[in-house]
């Protein structure tokens, strides 16, 4: 079996329940406006909510995703655990207030029965440590004998 950490999937990041970030659409668009290679558009969803869709390069990678200001949720489109860690550590985590908590899941986690489970993002360990933690999540949700909840 291929190591799940090398597999590209969708990543979903949000604040834990009851701990909002206070990150607005203007915070995201203002930050992206400083990057001449970034593209950001506002789309209206079927439910009538605004959704910021963006794309920007980090090194040779072109990342794309979306931010939903009303739910304070970040979605990264298809990318590997190391690529998601790179986006978080070089861009997104720096936008959050000091001490802000982040939880995440993946499309694979949701599809494999972990939809109601939130996994914490570890701060302060750097890109490689975060990539290992995100990769461990994919290994867990891909595991055939995985029966325990994240803690």
Give your account of this protein's structure:
Strand 3 and strand 4 form a beta hairpin. The chain is α+β, with helices and mostly antiparallel strands and 151 residues long. It has a 7-stranded antiparallel beta sheet. Residues 145-151 have low confidence and may be disordered. It has one domain. Helices cover 30% and strands 28% of the residues. The chain contains 4 helices and 7 strands; from the N terminus they run E-H-E-E-E-E-H-E-H-E-H.
Q: How are the strands of the largest sheet arranged?
A: 2-3-4-5-1-6-7
Strand fraction: 25-35%
Major β-sheet annotation: 7 strands, antiparallel
The radius of gyration is 15 Å
* SS elements, strand count: 7
Write the layout of secondary structure elements.
Elements: E1 9-14, H1 25-33, E2 39-44, E3 50-58, E4 61-68, E5 73-79, H2 81-92, E6 103-106, H3 107-114, E7 119-120, H4 126-142
Antiparallel strand pairs: 1-5, 1-6, 2-3, 3-4, 4-5, 6-7
Helix pairs in contact: 2-4, 3-4
Short description:
With 151 residues, this protein is of the alpha+beta class.
Protein traits:
151 residues, alpha+beta, seven-stranded antiparallel beta sheet
């Amino acid at each position: 079996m291929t190591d799940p950490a090398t597999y590209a999937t969708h990543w979903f990041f949000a604040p834990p329940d009851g701990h909002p970030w206070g990150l607005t659409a203007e915070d995201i668009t203002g930050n992206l406006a400083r990057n001449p290679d970034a593209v950001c558009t506002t789309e209206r969803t079927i439910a009538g909510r605004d959704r910021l869709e963006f794309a920007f390069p980090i090194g040779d990678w072109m990342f794309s995703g979306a931010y939903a200001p009303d739910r304070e949720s970040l979605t990264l489109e298809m990318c590997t655990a190391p690529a998601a860690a790179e986006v978080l550590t070089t861009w997104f985590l720096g936008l959050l207030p000091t001490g802000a908590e982040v939880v995440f899941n993946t499309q694979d986690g949701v599809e494999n029965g972990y939809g109601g489970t939130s996994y914490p993002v570890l701060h302060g360990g750097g890109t490689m440590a975060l990539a290992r933690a995100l990769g461990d999540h994919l290994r867990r949700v891909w595991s055939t004998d995985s029966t325990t909840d994240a803690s």
